[in-house]
C-alpha cells in the first residue's frame, strides 16, 4: 500500500541520516583522540557532544527489536543519548555566551557541573518517560515489528 511505502521511505531516510551522523561524530571522536592539541576545554565539550550523538545515532540505526527486553534496552539507550546530545549542545551555547558575550574565562570550572547536568538530566528524563506507561511492550513504545514479508513496519 502507499502508506506502507511511505513508511519504508521514511525509515530509509531516518537510517541514512543516522548513519551520516554516526560517521561525522565518529570522525570528531577519532580526531579528538588522535590529536592532543585538541584536548582543550572547548573541544572536550564538542567531544562529549560527539560521543553522545554517536551513541544516539547507533541506537537509532539499530532500530527497535520486537523482543520486549531488547526493545526496552534500545529505547532507553536511544532516548538517553539523544537527550544527552541535545544537552551537550546547551553547554556549548552556555560556554560561548559566557566567554564571548560576558568575557569571562572561568568556564572550565563548570566541567563537573556540565557532566552532572547532562548525564543526570538524561537519566531522569529517560526514567520519567516510563512512569505510568506500557513502555517496552511491542506495539506500544516498540513500534517496529517484522511483517510476514520480513520488512519493517510501524504498528
TrEMBL record:
Principal subcellular localisation of the protein: membrane
UniProtKB keywords: G-protein coupled receptor, Membrane, Receptor, Transducer, Transmembrane, Transmembrane helix
GO CC terms in record: plasma membrane
GO biological processes: adenylate cyclase-activating G protein-coupled receptor signaling pathway; cell surface receptor signaling pathway
PROSITE patterns in alphabetical order: G_PROTEIN_RECEP_F2_4
Domain G-protein coupled receptors family 2 profile span(s) in chain numbering: 10-155
Protein name: G-protein coupled receptors family 2 profile 2 domain-containing protein
Amino acid at each position: 500500500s502507499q502508506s506502507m511505502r511511505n513508511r519504508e521511505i521514511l525509515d530509509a531516510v531516518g537510517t541514512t541520516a543516522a548513519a551520516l551522523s554516526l560517521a561525522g561524530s565518529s570522525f570528531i571522536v577519532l580526531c579528538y583522540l588522535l590529536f592532543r592539541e585538541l584536548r582543550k576545554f572547548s573541544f572536550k565539550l564538542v567531544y562529549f557532544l560527539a560521543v553522545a550523538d554517536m551513541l544516539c545515532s547507533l541506537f537509532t540505526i539499530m532500530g527497535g527489536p520486537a523482543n520486549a527486553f531488547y526493545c526496552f534496552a534500545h529505547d532507553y539507550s536511544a532516548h538517553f543519548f539523544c537527550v544527552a546530545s541535545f544537552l551537550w549542545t546547551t553547554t556549548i551555547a552556555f560556554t560561548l555566551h559566557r566567554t564571548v558575550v560576558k568575557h569571562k574565562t572561568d568556564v572550565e570550572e563548570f566541567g563537573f557541573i556540565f557532566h552532572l547536568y547532562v548525564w543526570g538530566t538524561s537519566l531522569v528524563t529517560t526514567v520519567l518517560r516510563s512512569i505510568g506507561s506500557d513502555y517496552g511492550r511491542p506495539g506500544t513504545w516498540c513500534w517496529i515489528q517484522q511483517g510476514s514479508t520480513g520488512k519493517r513496519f510501524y504498528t
